[in-house]
Amino acid sequence: MANSGLQILGFALSLLGLIGLIIGTILPQWKMSAYVGDNIITAVAMYQGLWMSCAFQSTGQIQCKVYDSILQLDGALQATRALMIVGIIVTAAGLGVACMGMKCTNCGGDDKTRKSRIALAGGVILLIGSLAAIVACSWFAHNIIREFYNPFTPVNTKYEFGSAIFIAWAGAFLDVIGGCMLAASCPKSKPTPKYPISNRPPSSTKEYV
């Protein structure tokens, strides 16, 4: 029963993590314009994401533009896109495999040992998908920090972390926790006895002196 509860909790956390990865990948607020130097007071806030860039005006109007061509983007943004998509696909596949191995489902048959191994495989797949997302977010964040502290970067073109990258980070770490729970729910195999156990019934005769 304890393993079943651990599997359900791990699956729920992984599902929330997948939703966080999807939302974080879609949102354009991966980096936002930094208000430093002469750029403290401005009427327009610039946001850039993996798929589009947006301008938020003080009047409440939002103007977004989807990137015209993939080939015009820098290599870091293309790699971040690819890793996030791979992370989402692998995480979704891991959830499907883990669902087959959970004790509360009938997808993987009635063999408990086999279902536990399937759940373990699903947890490992979830860890791989979350690792891809963590690498993507960390790489993107490293580029933001490097450009921010670069003295040759103009002040009005410096950016800082946006909310979308934190959502993606949170989703990836939820997938890590959920994958570890699913992998840890696999019971240890019982050691086989060194000597064969005798099945002979005990003798019912008693000797009296």
Keywords:
alpha+beta; single chain; 209 residues
* DSSP strand content: 5-15%
Q: Based on Cα principal axes, name the global outline.
A: elongated
Q: What is the chains' assembly state?
A: single chain
Mean pLDDT: 83
Structure summary, number of beta strands: 5
Provide the spatial order of strands within the biggest beta sheet. Answer: 4-3-2-1-5
**Number of alpha- plus pi-helical segments:** 4
What does this protein structure show overall?
- The protein has 209 residues and is an alpha+beta fold.
- 53% of the residues lie in helices and 11% in strands.
- The protein is built from 4 helices and 5 strands, in the order H-E-E-E-E-H-H-E-H.
- The protein has helices at residues 2-26, 75-101, 112-148, 163-184; strands at 31-33, 44-48, 52-57, 62-66, 159-161.
- Strands 4-3-2-1-5 form a 5-stranded antiparallel β-sheet.
- It starts with a helix and ends in a 25-residue tail after the last helix.
What topology emerges from the helices and strands here?
Elements (H helix, E strand, L loop, with lengths): L1 H25 L4 E3 L10 E5 L3 E6 L4 E5 L8 H27 L10 H37 L10 E3 L1 H22 L25
Antiparallel strand pairs: 1-2, 1-5, 2-3, 3-4
Helix pairs in contact: 1-2, 1-4, 2-3, 3-4
